[in-house]
Amino acid sequence: MITHLPQESVLERFKRYVRIDTRSDEDSETVPSTAKQLDLLRLLHRELLALHIEDASIDDKGYVYGTVPSNLAAEETPKVPVIGFIAHADTAPGVTGTNVKPIVHRNYRGGDIVLPGDPTQVIRTAEYPNLVNRYLGMDIVTSDGTTLLGADDKAGVAEIMTAVDILNQNPQLRHGTLKIAFNPDEEIGRGAQHFDIVKFGARFAYTFDGGPLGEIEYETFNAFSAEITIKGVGVHPGYAKDKLVNAIRVAADFVQRLPKELSPETTEGREGYIHPYVINGQGEMVKMRMLLRDFEMDGIEKQRGLLEGIVRELQSVHAKAGFELQLKEYYRNMRYKIEQEPRLIAYAEEAIRRIGVEPHHELVRGGTDGSRLSYMGLPCPNLFAGGEAFHSTREWVPVQVMEKAAECAVHLAQIWAERSLAR
Ligand SMILES: [Zn+2]
Predict the structure, then answer these.
(1) Annotated catalytic residue: which of 47, 139, 165, 186?
(2) Is the pTM of this model over 0.70?
């Protein structure tokens, strides 16, 4: 049982972190992509040291690592796998994160929340039903409506810090070796790129970067792209009868043949899609790029078959046209890696039940840093951090959900110890 409060509340930490601008920049070549992310990452390094994480370090790319030593008996410690907790310090490039003014709406009583800095920004319960269905009476944190809040993922950062603080205050809670990491540049898809999993030293990890209370995510799309090159035959158009092949018309024909029910605008949940998103060219040559997404590799293979079928059909209609089709892999569904270690999800579910909440699995119709880390050798599901309306000025997070997330991390650490020692 947690008998002692943390030295500092998760809300106080959260407010301090969101006031620091850490917006990342996809057009930058540097690591981290923006130097200002270091303002927060260096602070987190100092705060870990202050929480007695003696090996806390920050590398030249801004990655912060640290170890919470095991408090088990010397012969017990090796029997408990080292687990890690990870959160990202940057915020989304699309919305300003300068001069964030967090506002705490105490004891939420229902109704839409109008943000005072820009009253056109309204958090509507119709859009976010959790507010009234689950969070009545809680304290809801928002920005003033002129910036994002940064709950994605400073809620996760504050929760992990608070979990470390709780463990410090409650030495009776038995746990194995825990690893902590905070990274830059998740929002531009580079958070895993320079993540040193050897230095980190955990066998499994959890990112605290998900949404509503009780959520677990360990399924992402399989993500491929198809590049299609169509070569036409150029002839003076005045004398082109039966000779000219216009690659633009062939490309239009190609897109026309893609099944409409297999597009992002017509699919949801577990359904995959094909999404043409780049087209470049002239009458003589057109290049198109398409996203292929499906939760199953079978689905990706079917999509490949479908594109190959269209190429064959078009080849028979336009005999003189040339076609090339190339698939490229971006990432795979992390479920394939997570399922190899059933304890990862079972213990997370148990930790969520111990905070009095029924766990809920959510599909990610995209990828996460966790999916990349999972394929780099660090299986890494994503747990709720509490926020909603990410990447917008209407972002919000309940204080009490952040507190629950911190407790969930503490339970998770205990469960890994309990169960591993009982085996
Ligand atoms: Zn995030």
Answers:
(1) 186
(2) yes
